[in-house]
Amino acid sequence: MSLLFPALTEDPGERVALRFGERSLTYAGLAAAAGAVGRRVAGRERVAVWATPELETAVAVVGVLLAGVAAVPLNPRSGEKELGHILADSAPSLVLAAPGAELPPALAGLERVDVDVRAAAPLPEERAGQEDPALVVYTSGTTGPPKGAVIPRRAVATTLDALADAWQWTGDDVLVQGLPLFHVHGLVLGILGPLRRGGSVRHLGRFGTEGVARELSGGATMLFGVPTMYHRIAEALPGDPALAKALAGARLLVSGSAALPVHDHERIAAATGRRVIERYGMTETLMNTSVRADGEARAGTVGVPLPGVELRLVEEDGTALTAYDGETVGEIQVRGPNLFTEYLNRPDATAAAFTADGYFRTGDMAVRDPDGYVRIVGRKATDLIKSGGYKIGAGEIENALLEHPGVREAAVTGEPDADLGERIVAWIVPADPQSPPGAEELAEHVARRLAPHKRPRAVRLLDALPRNDMGKIMKRALPHG
Fold first, then answer.
1. How many domains does the chain have?
2. 5: pLDDT strictly greater than 60
3. This prediction's pTM
4. Residue 470 — pLDDT band, cuts 50, 70, 90?
5. Structural domain range at position 225
6. For 375-382, which contacts have Cβ atoms below 8 Å and span 24 or more sequence positions?
7. 30-58 burial, b for 16+ CB within 10 Å, e for fewer?
């Protein structure tokens, strides 16, 4: 019996495991194709996977895991320098790719094996232990070269089982998603999650509201997306009754990888009667918290800690907050079986990431309500603004700005100020570039909704905000001064 994917060794009949566009594999077909991959890579330490949004990527990763080998998913949009660093650091012995995929020069020296989804071989005998590496996933590298987070098999299994508990996720669920497959969200949650439950996943290849409507009205029960996707859905809903009806019939709509603005939450709920729920995780921790399927879907929060996860907020000096009032900001630290083992080849960074009592320092700032709900207010490095003696999270100001009808997109940063320490700066993409809202108007709008000390002191207009592949705003890429 497969420890990670029991459905592969049971008799699933003709149940479809994976579908990418017109191409699909039943559980029997997946077991055969993944078995062939597993036998090809058996005995290796690490194997790279050219992670295009195709059937072959899912088969490759499952096959590698079944062989007890660690998979290193590669982002097909990585630049040469980043790719060169990842290959030198992880030293994979070969790369798995879809037939016909064009690989960049950085991979030229690596043995290539094309994945044949029609191949067949018996499943290899699983010998890997729970602490053995399942994946090496590279972080985005905002502070230097990307670091390879070594994720053990134990973390994959415990996170997926904790989400099954929180979301009442079963083998009857059919997931629709259009996420990249080189990140935790799209690959671990969005592919390995359904397979661990014995359910089905339909990958859109490229996200589009038409595909979402088609799949959710054609038997899919769950949707995973990032805020950019849900924003597009919110924009499309007023003119697309078929989309509204399809979303209304979904069992679960889940957003992650960045905060979903409250404005988009409300628009989707008003049009469909369904609440999007949010969860919170990182490459190094997999999933930490979620709004539960049987809990209150409170917009702007990421819910409560998942089963097995210990979570605390700490002051700057490391002192744990003892009471949660929904106002006091602290850094999130987590401990539990969901955590990564180490940063590959970086014992210094690994040691610095953990406290003496085994908590991981996330670098994320949050407040926690008395009933345990967590609300993230931003990253410690870029989103915590110290202004006039207050600690202010950029996230809540961004949410308030997005509620202004003249604002299409918003980001908030702090910059040095002789009087305040830091002043709050709002970066705005106006809804109508010909008549953008004025700085004073936006400052008053925020002051009325939040508090006077949280109003922006400067407003900068942009045509678009810089974002990464997952839709996260890259604040370090904003113009300076």
1. 3
2. yes
3. 0.86
4. low
5. 214-274
6. 375/300, 375/301, 375/302, 375/326, 376/259, 376/280, 376/302, 376/332, 377/329, 380/331, 381/142, 381/143, 382/413, 382/475, 382/476
7. bbbbbbbbbbbbbeeebbbbbbbbbbbbb
